[in-house]
């Protein structure tokens, strides 16, 4: 469909110019006739620039990974920055509505497993090397962006979570807040850089419960 | 202007003495508005900080400290540090003498002296940086050794990214990628392929065989193909059209690893642009279109983890685990980020731009890139444009 529109634009462009600017034409489409957004979409989906047919772990192909959902699209601002306040509020509302809670309420799992999951960056990578979820559990990448325990070096894209449970406590409200942030961080921080671990199906309920235990359990080294 | 601004309030004694300042920590910037304290706030803070438990100070000690502070004050004024809270600190010191608070007097005087010393040090550093910046600017457009380019950038830019690996800095003079480049030179000049010709007739944008500074102006539009091409794609083009290789021959098809012809040739060609300022042309509409689409792609969030390149590369000093990330918005830092080929210590291999790009899309949990594709070249056009004007470090050495 996009292709058709492009060639139509191209024909119109050429007709208008009457002298074909041959040198400006790459293959059958004229990139210079497209807006940067149109060209980016064309390059991603129509130009064989990405291995879109590769199978991905969640089923289907890498093509669907490249298609933006509403939140991804809204939160992509060329040049940086964020959308306006109204849009942000809408994003956060949408995010809250996406959250599904465990049937038996939010419980803390096993902090020891949570510690490993928070550290691990394994999972969902495809391409020249593809992560095999049969061999290795999907990790949360939390340490990529957060300092959490003091025994390992964490990143600084997100705030430090050292002592998170000790400082915030383990009330139901805090458990819910933590669950919400992990499940869909945009509920609290619209257009944040933190991935939506629950809403995107990245982590399952057990993994979330275990990582929550790592953050909140008084026994966890995070809170020592 | 700079001289009238107040340096940042020192946060600790060791920082004031300047002895233990971590060189990765940003220097107090004259323009950092958030860091300018009002005089009274500063003095109130200092009063609160001074411990009262030291008793044994004598009047002589206090007086000589005050004299020293006054002396330093004069030196500082001579250097142009005019607006400063030190006068008031010295006054405070003198005013507590009659009540025999000699320790306090001594410490006020010490603070005043250090305050001025710090301000002078700051000015000296900024002047040195300006000078080396000018020198580096003058040198842009001529060859410079990669280590000298990097040192120049470090001297004029405070960047945790540029300085993150002392070890790499030390090893840079013996960068194994230099050997790869030398192998590449031999390959480049050798008559090869079914047509038995060398690559010396290959035009990388500045005329057949001209390599000096050519890579710093890629990707660019090539008349003969009607396409915007990056180094790797152009090299493939010449190997196929000039030398007669088939695209499936290992010489052309094998793109990665120290042993590949591609890495040898790319490293050699690129090394001829070391010290040249990145300057990809934007004269042809296609060059502009590709760069602009690359920009959209840079900020485009997608994939299993909602990442865009900008998630990790648009703030200064942020880290993924222990790795300091380069900020695309700081050209002095970004030039190192896009200086490929580079020897990646962690891989023990020389790597290309296309290899890095593939790695970043992989980390983002998005679809894999196809080397030489227009999508990949659009991204390289944008990332090179973001380093425009800064000298390339070629070959570089990375973590």
CATH topology-level fold name of the largest domain in chain B: Cytochrome Bc1 Complex, Chain D, domain 2
CATH class of the largest domain in chain B: Mainly Alpha
Instruction: Please tell me the total number of domains of chain A.
Output: 2
User: What is the CATH superfamily classification of the largest domain in chain A?
Assistant: Cytochrome c-like domain
| Shape-level CATH architecture of the largest domain in chain A | Orthogonal Bundle
Which two chains form the greatest contact, residue counts included?
A: A-B, 58 and 54 residues
Mean pLDDT of chain B: 85
**Helix proportion range of chain B:** 40-55%
List the helices and strands of chain B in order.
Answer: HHHHHHHHEEHHHHHEEHEEHHE
**Poorly predicted runs of 5 or more residues of chain A:** 1-26
Mean pLDDT of chain A equals 90
| The CATH H-level homologous superfamily of the largest domain in chain B | Cytochrome c-like domain
Beta-strand percent range of chain A = under 5%
The percent range for helix content of chain A is 40-55%
Strand content of chain B: under 5%
Gyration radius from CA atoms of chain B, angstroms: 27 Å
Number of strands of chain B: 7
Name of the level-1 CATH class of the largest domain in chain A: Mainly Alpha
Q: Major beta sheet of chain B, specifics?
A: 3 strands, mixed
Shape of chain A: globular
List the secondary-structure elements of chain A in sequence, H or E.
Answer: HHHHHHHHHH
